[in-house]
Specification:
heterodimer; A: alpha/beta; six-stranded mixed beta sheet; four-stranded antiparallel beta sheet; 37% helix; B: alpha/beta; eleven-stranded mixed beta sheet; ten-stranded mixed beta sheet; 13 helices; 23 strands
Amino acid sequence: MLTVKDLRVSVADTEIIKGMSLQIKPGEVHAIMGLNGAGKSTLANTIAGRDDYEVTAGTIEFEGKDLLELDPHERVGEGIFLGFQYPVEIPGVSNLNFMRTALNSVRRYRGEEDMSAAEFMKLVRAKAADLQMDPEMLKRFVNVGFSGGEKKRNEMVQMAILDPKLAVLDETDSGLDIDALKVVANGINAQRRDDTAVLLITHYQRLLDYVQPDVVHVMIDGKIVKTGGKELAIELEEKGYADVA
Amino acid sequence: MAGTQETQQQVAEITGEYKYGFVTDVDMDMAPKGLSEDIVRFISAKKGEPEWLLDWRLKAYRAWLKMEEPDWAKVDYPKIDYDDIYYYAAPKSQNKPKSLDEVDPELLRTYEKLGIPLAEQEVLAGVEGARKIAVDAVFDSVSVATTFREELKKAGVIFMSISEAVHEYPELVQKYMGTVVPQRDNYFAALNCAVFTDGTFVYIPKGVRCPMELSTYFRINTENTGQFERTLIVADEGAYVSYLEGCTAPMRDENQLHAAVVELIALDDSEIKYSTVQNWYPGDKDGKGGIYNFVTKRALCKGKNSKVSWTQVETGSAVTWKYPSCVLAGEGSVGEFYSVAVTNNLQQADTGTKMIHMAPNTRSTIISKGISAGRSQNSYRGLVKVLSGAENVRNYTQCDSLLVSSDSGAHTVPYIEVKNPTAQIEHEATTSKISEDQLFYCRARGLGEEEAVAMIVNGFCKEVMQHLPMEFAVEAQKLLGISLEGSVG
């Protein structure tokens, strides 16, 4: 589904990702673990197509398409979702309007009709209920005045509505108490199917207690230094990065 | 709300073109080019005006000759040659039609293309649930149609062109015209008094709540023509009216002048809600052409507990010079000003308000949202003045500027003059650049770059847009998106 080959990425002329490769197949959950500054978030932003992340070498293919040729919104249309480490506030724009605009933009990209307001309301209410989000939150402005947990929950609702093929979740677990963490984990697990894949970016093993990864990568200084099964995450937790690498 | 989605659709459909830039081909009856006493007499004669009005015009003309064009606004444009303008242009077919059947079909088609289906609207209104909107359509110098007049008349509401009102209700017009904006108020107001051609007259009698939205649609069509709109709205004791004006013009390389005077008078316990969606041709991306929108709008809250609320969405015009104001003369009266001004390419806007607190317990609110894109300049200029006899005045002002491009400018020029120590005046102002984080967040949810800008800008303007009548809010949201076309990158 996703093939990253010999990727090098610079931000403001500083090389952050220094040659990495990765392959994710449908049905798989991969976790990339590493300390702050290892280049994990840079990978997530590069996959989503943020400006200022300059790919200096290597390729990223998604379902056979050259991802680097596509604008960010086209990548979403192709089925990629980025869950933000720090979801952004958009004052004056209701969460409902935001989600509906997002969904219909994606549908239009795929040549589908807009979803009717009634159908959308049904969908969004169901997804909010699954993720135990207070329906009042849907009427509020996007992320404005949300707590850390509420913001992450909101990311999960957006993901559920857009139903991506590949979800890239950047530190979605950070700053959550245990209850919120469980809700987020449920959201991720609900997204887990034979035809979808998830790339979890985290530096704690904690989330992996609730979402079992198929593959774990350890990233240090812009490179993947070790790849293994879920036992690798536990080993990391016990021994620390220095010893594992 | 589906507004933003529609914005995007619209943006996709239109791809950068000013939608209303076409020209209607009809035979016109024109005054000779230029300005003189003879031209003033010509206009007055064309309209068959009474002597008092001709004298009034001439007085204004003579005053204007001695006045100087103001240059304090932060706008820059070549000197206007007032002798190179046609001051009167009316469709020849237009011999005061009594009903829509008599209106030139070419004109009806024009309004249909503009989305103002004059004839259809009457039919539409028959549909259950659809709210009625009465329209006065002003084409260059004359009103070509006014709908729902009879139905409004039954409620006692007078809604007609000001030219007709001069004949049918001379005592009302004479009593109120020029009482809020004196002839010598400013250069453009004096010019307007001398050569005004048409506009709308509204009178809501005592205790009447106007049964429908009233609107005027201004269209400039003929080349080199100036449009001198004159509108007068009077709300008698306890009356209520909501009024909206819309404006468009063809795309031309030459600049054209629209110099309007709008006067509102609110008597005891009455309320006037005045909304504007201004979409005059803004000129092309190199700043060629476009309308000079030099407008004096002022409300007199004459009665106690009266209220006037100005809401404006200004997206068009090459140069805008406009300060809808409230003179709060009645005790406990309320003035409000909600404004969104968008400038793109080389547009210049200098707009704001004046709140003059003359009486005790008067309150005013000013919310201004300026959005600057391209290489445009966007200024808020406002005055809050409290006279010494006005006890317990309150004002709240909030001016927010959003820069969409790094080559544009946002300026805030607030003046506060307080002569009474009991006044509570609050002023807040912010200026920010559109956030890369917000843009990327929207794009990472599937929105194209321009859709993302439209969504963020609409959110930024929310507090103002919610004051527009619902029928026009969606339209205005679309307009914001369209106005910012090509502003990214």
